[in-house]
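INPUT
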Amino acid sequence: MNGRMSGLAQGPWTIETLARNGEVLHRHRVAALPIRFGRAYDNDFIIDDDYAAPHHACVDLGPDGRLLLRDLDTRNGIVHKGKCVKELALDGDTVVRMGHTSLRIRGANHPIGPELRDRTMHGWEGVLPGGAGLVLSLLVALLVAWLTDTSNDLERYAQYPAAAAGIGLVWSGLWAFGNRLFGRRARLGRHLFIFGCALTALVALRLLASVLAYAWSLEWVSGYASHAAVATVAVAIYFHLATVTPQLRRRLRAICGALAVLSSILILAGNMQRHGRTADELYMPVLLPPELRASPDMPVADYINEVGAMKQEIDAERRGGN
Amino acid sequence: MKRAVLAFLLTCTAIGAAFEAMAPPAAAQTPAQNLAQPAARATQHTAGSGAAAGAPQLSLDVAPAATPTAPLPGESVPQDALPEPSSGAQDLYESARGDLLQIRMLLKNGRTQSTVGSGFLVGTSNLALTNYHVVSQMALDPGIYTAEYIDTDGNTGPVELMAVDVLHDLAVVRINRNGSGFFKVPEQPVKLRQGQRLYSLGNPLDLGFAISEGAYNGVLTRSFYDRLIFSGPINSGMSGGPSVTASGTVAGINVARRTDGESVSFLVPVKHAQELLRMVAGQPAPPADFNPQIGKQLLAHQAGMVDKLLEEPLTLKGMGQYLVPVRESGEVRCWGRSNARGAAYSVDSMSCVMQSALFVSDTQQTGNVAMTHQYIRSGTMEPLRFATLASDSFQVDNLGSTGDARLTKPFCTERFVHTRSLPMRAVTCVRAYRKFEGLYNFTLLTASTDASQSSLQSRLDVSGVSYENGMRVTRAYLGAFGRSGRR
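OUTPUT
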């Protein structure tokens, strides 16, 4: 920690009042030492806290040239890392608590990080992405309505898009609320766009899995398609979170990845418990037009041989299950 | 601020619309379930509630019913001056009541009754005859169930199970007293004439002992095993009671009735009881475990059933451009139906069931064959839309799961296969019986994969067969599919 303090700290001094999560609530500049802290109006820095003493603490240069914080014989004292201290040497990252107030003191030469590259597309905000997301959701809903239409019922072509738009607005609205809360701006348009893309990806992946499984007899692709859906949802949530707090991308990636893995494991375990298999379905029910078949069919005799080969497995299960 | 209010209002409207959108699909699904309803239903067990889980959808099972009817007196003698029927029944009941029993299955814990049926003492022995389905709980779970008898005087005593015959639904039990000799089980088969009066005795609905009269009406030919048709009222609880001629000669044992008919009841011919009694005669002590005995009988049943099913090649019938295998004979009954749903597509279906189901327990029937064909076609739906419909219809959820005490979980083999002239998707799922070694349930699901606007989807259920026989039926059935070339 001291390594960062190249040379000794210099004034003027900035006192930062911190929230519990480390965010700065308030900054106050003091030109010279010593700095007196307390509730009384004759202090250099007034602590607006009923649990602080009128004259609570004082900062001055210590014998080694560093800042030294001293407690002025108060009832609640100074707390550093959970311990009550009488005297404490400070550097720019030392956080102390007086009463309910946490603060730190930084010199004018305190080192700060470099400027971040701005990757945000400032043109892609508001109505443009919001409209695109909504249109995507409506189109996907129309596609699903058309695919599952068996009765030539026109009402569904209104109901499905309405449902998609409703769910999309609620979902994005909640994210926008969070965004406003933690990121100062709502960015509803961006969240709507993310929702639209995620919905499109979900439906596209489901269709792709069906086609792959059917065309090349890859039944497992259809049987484990729910994990692709889990991954899609995790990616969507990552983008939502990254929109809210762009600084923490790496951590968010790890969190979303872990959540996706956990969900997949839960799905596998749930299938195992309910059906005794890890796949989502007992067999692939997908039937597609014959033009989409790419791999050769099997003669009935070979198929019957495969059925015969199952006997051992079943008998083992019967004996084991008793 | 204005924008936020606008977004909120828009959201509310959209949610409202979304909820409305959810409701109609749910309502639309109800008619689809009707499709799977049995074309005819006709079974009731006499002993307790006989809801048969796991029975194929289209069964017309004649399940064992409990109450046979009683023939009129004087039926076995040449038609001369008959006594007044009611007084004949009176006399008969008076002489028979000493040997008539009610048999109750009791839970060992708490000794509360779970099912009740009837039975009767054979001759002067301490052996009584009843139905297998009356004592099935005791046979399958001797650790949980026990039994007692009550006679017409209210005396009770313990019951020992000596032998069971699952195929004919008979059981022999031993009690702690001897019969008076009224009920004669003849060594020779009894000759009956159609219309002859029979008297059926038992304890209907646990209300008290009763005698009812009716007429013998020949042998049921559609059943896999012989059953006598008895035209008389029968009620639950009379299962296992005797149906006798006026002289007390037992003609049959009450077993079942049709719930969709009036006084159409069934008896087990007495010759099967004779065979079972002969077997018990050479056996000093009751067996400790009936599962091997029942398993052996079920194996014998399935061997006969599959041989009969495959004794000649399956008949091919045309459904659209497809040829589908069915079996039409005395034991197999088929029904067809057509559902034109809206204008978008239509469904024709055909179901066949072999009348060979056996009662094993309240929750398990076995030994039957059911086949269903569904021909879905549409002239107006685009291939992808039709594919969604066909996939939906090909999804069957009731093939079983883990946690079933009777059967293992299903194991499936799924492949794209081609028969002589038809490419198909075939899924075979097999489950093994836990209690009976060597018995399996086979389910074969097939769907044609040759056309984009028509789909032939079939299902074959063969329950309670050996693995070899299951494969035999699957092979014969699957190999028979074809295309007729006709559109």
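end of record. Chain A has two domains: 7-106, 127-289.
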